[in-house]
Write a structure and sequence with these properties.
single chain, mainly beta, Jelly Rolls, 5-stranded antiparallel sheet, 13 strands, about 5% helix
Amino acid sequence: MTVEHTHIKDLILIQPTVFEDERGYFYESYNAKQYQEHGLPTNFVQDNQSKSNKGVLRGLHFQNPPYAQGKLVSVIKGAVLDVAVDIRKSSTTYGQHFTVELNETNKTMLYVPEGFAHGFITLQNNTIFSYKCTNFYNNKEEMSLLWNDTMLNINWNESNPSLSVKDIAGISFNQFKSPFS
């Protein structure tokens, strides 16, 4: 596997070593020893999957401390534009975002640590998205930033995505008071 540090500290792209032949492919999507060698977390406690049709936007979500989650995200089937926003007050990249296409072909994974809001928009029908989380889900501590906030200026390449009620009601970035130092 190869690890690539993005321009935002602690936000890491992971490219597994894929073995392919005429029968298909095989790769390790998680190996605690290799993750530890690269300084990545190994204490994942919950796995989640979502299935969405094209144009579904989920995010920008995070949980407040001490319930914050790091997430290892990937696509099993289909494709997404994945977005992570740095919401750590003391970070030099506070308020900046990173986008990457994750899909079933490139098999790229993204590690999104605590202190980031995270979301994605599906680029294909029947997209299956996978999350490994470092903490359990706590709905009382979950928050959402407004997906189309002009201060964040994220290009989702979609002007009218399908959104949940929770995501429509996200808070604007200028009203946001980060609980992350």
